[in-house]
Amino acid sequence: MKTVTEFPRKVVEFPDMGIVMPDGCRLSARVWMPEDAGDDPVPAILEHLPYRKRDGTIFRDQLTHPYFAGHGYASIRVDMRGNGDSEGLMDDEYSERELQDACDVIAWAAAQPWCNGSVGMMGISWGGFSCLQVAAKQPPALKAVISLCSTVDRYADDIHYKGGCLLLENFGWASTMLSYSSRPPDPAIAGGNRWRDLWLTRLENQPFLLPLWLSHQHRDAYWKRGSICEDFSAVKAAVLSIGGWHDGYRNTISHLVTNIQAPVKGIVGPWIHKYPHYAAPKPAIGFLQEALRWWDRWLKGAETGVEADPDYRAYVMDSVRPARWHPERPGRWVAEQEWPSPNISIEAIELVPDGAKPSIVASPQTCGLAGGEYFPFTFGPELPGDQRPDDALSVCFDQPELTEAIDIVGAPEVEVQIAADRPQANIAVRLCDVHPDGAAELISYGVLNLTHRNSHEFPKALVPGEIVSARVVLDQCAYRVPAGHKLRIAVSTAYWPMIWPSPEPVTLDLSKATLKLPLRPLAKANEVSFTEPEGAPPWATETTRAANSERHVDRDEKTGTVTLSITDDFGELRDLEHGLVHGSIVRETWAIHPDDPLSAKGSTHWTQTFSRNEWLVRTETFAEMRCDAQNFILSGRIEAYEGENLVFERDFEQKVLRALV
């Protein structure tokens, strides 16, 4: 990445600008703007997050926000209420209070003497969700958004549920937020003993969100609120949507470009859950330059040509050897002037034709361990590995060896006719690239709770032995399968630890199956290009503990239980400007017996540490999830230490009734 030190306008920074909400709650903002903005007002760009501007997102903030400010914007990074250095309490993700706070910050920014009245909003993940949901509320000053790694559907395409199946990331993310929101304000910002009062109040009121999320197992009003797919026309601001093929949120770009009536463009690269100017696998792109083109057009009225950009720009990844991490993905950029594209044709491939003997699918509960993380973000061993171990536990339909390469661009689908021997059953479908020596790389996957085959809102139990029709939609992809390779469609009844298992072992009779494959004419070279990445001077830090990620799969030969153990040590860094030292570690275990879905158990343990001179605090959070046939059984704990003294402890225990459809 090229570091830019000279900008058209000189930048000043305000590390703690207070923004008081109508109810009196003070939000803390870090603001960068041109030094002369008071005389020559500029548009504002808002990023509104719970992830702590002081130490959480500071790496990317340093690259990004001063860059925008130097090009004539007031760039505002706000800690949401109940997090970081802001007052108040957080009760849930994307609550009405949170979204109204963002609308109030937008109105506040537009009214400042240094702002010209136009505001943009941006963000990745939580911030990407938020800016779309805020745009649907149509605050008058909001003219444009840039949303990365986000969703249009909080139920069907977030970390909670997928295809009506319970994602284990539901538990994982609830555990993460329990840890993240347990962290204290910085005394250097909050001052005196006020930081401690804010911290202890926050801890006393900190929710463990998992029971709430599990109490809504169908697509009810709780999930519809904030899902902009309920009314795409509500979004009037211009939308630039960006995502990555190695991220969990790879479908949103297509959904937005297909459905938004306001100006909208989409870009999908080979990246994990990161901003694309520093993301991997490479190639990264000049995201900040693309963002400026967007902001300059919609916030300043400049003619930057963004309207003429292709609707959908995607990186078609070449076939590679399976690995848990790829620093780079060879391939090429393709461009579709309109999306859905008339250049995409659908090839139907019969897997189980009419009249054929049914294929019997009955997978061990451990099938899925090669699947990788839902949204990788550590630049570590989180990508899908060689699929052969999972293929051995699935029913596989191998296609003939390709005589010519093909480009798959879009969302593959598999239509099935199927009978189950239980009233509830899950099905997982993987599309794989099989190398000549048998190695198998995951192209895309989809899962479906078969009781949700017609509706996520009104599921219907299966009648054992009755044949039903269902459609499994796999995730969007852009992938070249070379000549000499084969396509494999692998079908299983389990996908652990991506989804929680059915309450009973399941056998499926697959009597008909058809793959619908979206094919694009073979791209010969890059059809569009991007500038090389740029950024403002990076965050100045000293490493006091190096980061490290590890994954281990162990089988207890006595009990048969298989355990996936993950340790992500994010390291510890000292900020060389304000001196805060922050470190964090998460340890996860996911255990299950191949023959017993009720043996499923997940546990997490997070450690967060903060220090400066003689000040030292630490939080430890623990969470566990298991089940019986009728209930999810949940527990959690927060411990907070000042020095070595335990100053707070709190336990969470709850059962949540398990929906059996």
Quick structural gist:
With 661 residues, this protein is an alpha+beta fold. It is built from 11 helices and 33 strands. The protein is globular and about 75 Å long.
Keywords:
alpha+beta, 11 helices, 33 strands
Helix content: 10-25%
**N-to-C CA distance:** 49 Å
Number of helices: 11
The percent range for strand residues is 35-45%
- Spans of at least 5 consecutive residues whose pLDDT stays below 50 are none
Query: How many individual β-strands?
Result: 33
Shape: globular
The main β sheet shows up as: 10 strands, mixed
Radius of gyration: 25 Å
Biggest β-sheet: strands ordered side by side in the sheet: 2-3-5-4-6-7-10-11-12-13
Q: Give the integer mean of the pLDDT values.
A: 97
What structural class do you assign from the helix and strand content?
alpha+beta
Characterization of the model:
This protein is of the alpha+beta class and 661 residues long. 16% of the residues lie in helices and 39% in strands. The strands form six sheets. The protein has a ten-stranded mixed β-sheet with strand order 2-3-5-4-6-7-10-11-12-13, with helices on both faces. Strands 26, 27, 28, 29, 30, 31, 32 and 33 form an eight-stranded antiparallel β-sheet that branches. Strands 14, 15, 17, 18, 21, 22 and 24 form a seven-stranded antiparallel β-sheet that branches. The protein is globular and about 75 Å long. The model has no long low-confidence stretch (mean pLDDT 97).
